[in-house]
Amino acid sequence: MKRDSRLSGVLHVLLHMAETDGPVTSEQLSKAMRTNPVVIRRTMAGLREQGLVRSEKGHGGGWTIAKDLVTVTLRDIYEALGSPGIFAMGNRTEAPGCLVEEAVNAAMDETFAQAEALLLKRFGEVTLAALSADFHARVTRRTSHCDFKDEPHAA
Length: 155
Known about the structure:
This protein is mainly alpha-helical. The chain has six helices and two strands, in the order H-H-H-E-E-H-H-H. It has a single domain, classed as Arc Repressor Mutant, subunit A (Orthogonal Bundle), CATH 1.10.10. Helix content is 53%, strand content 5%. It has a two-stranded antiparallel ribbon with strand order 1-2. The chain is elongated, with a radius of gyration of 19 Å. One of its GO terms (molecular function) is DNA-binding transcription factor activity. This is Transcriptional regulator. It comes from Aurantimonas aggregata. It holds the Pfam family Rrf2.
């Protein structure tokens, strides 16, 4: 089963951008994320529409973060990505003809709704600033610092 890793990828990109003075091009970001620049531009366009990033064309242009990291939550970014499905599991059928399956679906639907609400609440509590602070604490504990331009572990 394929997982949707866009949220994780965008958070990775945004934190690298936060560590960079000035705009970062789609080409630079695509190298860090090992993807095509078109994928970066398409993803960043959704963030731009929500006012989370800005883009400048031409020489010296690129992407910059448009808001203070303290004000941007994981939920903001999740929603800017189009609120992708959180769970890969689901009901066997949405219109069961069996009362047993109706009972199973009701229990599953309620459980998924409660879990999703809890996760989205937590997404709303975690800011980019908190992720950046965690990154800086990790850098302090480690002697080497990763540079997104030639980062070997980007995924």
